[in-house]
Amino acid sequence: MRTGKYRALAWVAVVIGGVGSARAGDLTVILDGVAHDQGGLRVGLYDRAESFRKEDRAVAIRTAAASPGQASIGFGQVPAGRYAIMAYHDEDGDGGLDRFMGMIPTEGYALSNDPEVSGPPAFDECAFDIPAEGRAITLKLRY
């Protein structure tokens, strides 16, 4: 009887311990096609449609210096789940994506899944899964 009780407690400890440690993995975003070294790069990670593309409501924002070619930006440990990314080359360093007439990006930008858009991109078009072991995703900047 005592052995069964200890086995049950051990099983609970393994399950609880395993859940906490296996639920997050590293996320690395690779931005391909950075045109030049002016300004900086901004990458936003979003976990819901309501906040997508609103930097002040992102799960996390990462920045990096711009350098022609490719940039690798790490988010560290991210809980497993469904996310979308919007990244841009903040060429003038003003902290926002410049747009013509408030709609059409005039600075380089990238979206996860690289959807064809003819208006504001939707979360579902850009959403991808991050498994517990983490992942790397490559995005191509469009200028």
Topology overview:
Layout: H1 2-21, E1 24-34, E2 40-46, E3 60-65, E4 69-79, E5 81-90, E6 99-100, E7 104-105, E8 109-111, H2 123-126, E9 128-130, E10 135-140
Protein name: DUF2141 domain-containing protein
InterPro entries: DUF2141
Organism: Magnetospirillum gryphiswaldense (strain DSM 6361 / JCM 21280 / NBRC 15271 / MSR-1)
Give keywords:
five-stranded antiparallel beta sheet, three-stranded mixed beta sheet, 2 helices, globular, DUF2141 domain-containing protein, Immunoglobulin-like, DUF2141, alpha+beta, 143 residues, 10 strands, single chain
Q: How is this structure best described in words?
A:
The protein has 143 residues and is an alpha+beta fold. The protein has one domain (24-140): Immunoglobulin-like (Sandwich). It contains 2 helices and 10 strands, in the order αββββββββαββ. Strands 2, 3, 5, 8 and 9 form a 5-stranded antiparallel sheet that branches. Strand 6 (99-100) and strand 7 (104-105) form a beta hairpin. The radius of gyration is 19 Å and the shape is globular. Residues 1-22 have low confidence and may be disordered. Pfam families: DUF2141. This is DUF2141 domain-containing protein.
CATH architecture: Sandwich
- Give the N-to-C terminal Cα separation: 69 Å
Strand content: 35-45%
Name the CATH class: Mainly Beta
**Helical residue percent band:** 10-25%
Poorly predicted spans: 1-22
- Helix/strand order: HEEEEEEEEHEE
Number of domains: 1
Task: Using the coordinates shown, work out and report the CATH topology.
Answer: Immunoglobulin-like
